[in-house]
Amino acid sequence: MSLSQSAPALPDLRQTQIVEWLTTLSDIPTLPATLRPASADASFRRYFRIDTAGPGTTAGGTLIVMDAPPPQEDVRPFIEIGALFGGIGLSVPAVLAQDVERGFLLLSDLGSTTYLQQLTSNSNIEDAHKLYMDAIDALVLLQTKSQPDVLPEYDRAFLLRELQIFPEWYIGKHLKATLSDQQSADLDKVFNAILANNLAQPQVFIHRDYHSRNLMVLADGNPGVLDFQGALYGPISYDIVSLLRDVYIQWDEAQVLDWLIRYWERAKRAGLPVAPDIDSFYRDFEYMGLQRHLKILGLFARLYHRDGKEAYLKDIPLVMDYVRKTALRYRELIPLVRMLDKLEDKAVQVGYTF
Fold it and tell me: DSSP label at 32?
């Protein structure tokens, strides 16, 4: 069903509440009429940009309003982890005002240029290299300040729950397939191999979505870091996988390896407990990436089939490419590729195209 131009727009009650809340912040004068969408993400959160009032009748700068509706969202982790990461020295939005009960935050504005926007509009590898080295330096800084018992642990149960999203939503809902007993057993073995590697890795603070859509290009203190509210204490290779095997932008394997080696060298110099040789660290990187990418295949399928967010379908081929290439390189992971071949061949034969 398409909406005609004459159809009245439904009132946005949350947006009305935001405007009412902003008018109560007398120490932070904003211009409610300038409230406009800044971005949305894969959750229920939305972001708005608003102008601030300058001296007299002149305009000031801009701020960001986060709309995180309860009970689906909780702004407290964002506040707490933002304070933690900011104290470490990362460039994160400052919380200027908060209404925790209603899920509203007023934040400093880190600008409107994400890494993804900058990288796709400018293919100069030297500029990309500078952005990635800034992101790597910020990541090493975060990891060197890690402490146990500060953030929740990314434990086996958590990692396995994420992996299970893949058979439930990608295989079951997206491919409309049911695994045989043998396929289920093979997938369990693959999952166990992945988790054995993941859990053997040293643990540090991890952002969990450290990639081009959540990093902002800043003139000073680059990068700006967003969307950190799900941070955990987990495997050391997780964030560098998110950054270099990004599901929204792909780099040649030689370039990925170059940046990975540079990260590994910096991490070693900083005293981080990365694997002592690059071959071992690369294996950790690959197995961690496979856990993440299988989860993401399930998440993207769920965003489409449950939440109606069709845009994520276009990113599935890249994620699947990462999965297949990694699994083909390790004998204990080959059953995953064989299973995918059978499932996707069957899906094509019955008329599904993705």
Answer: G
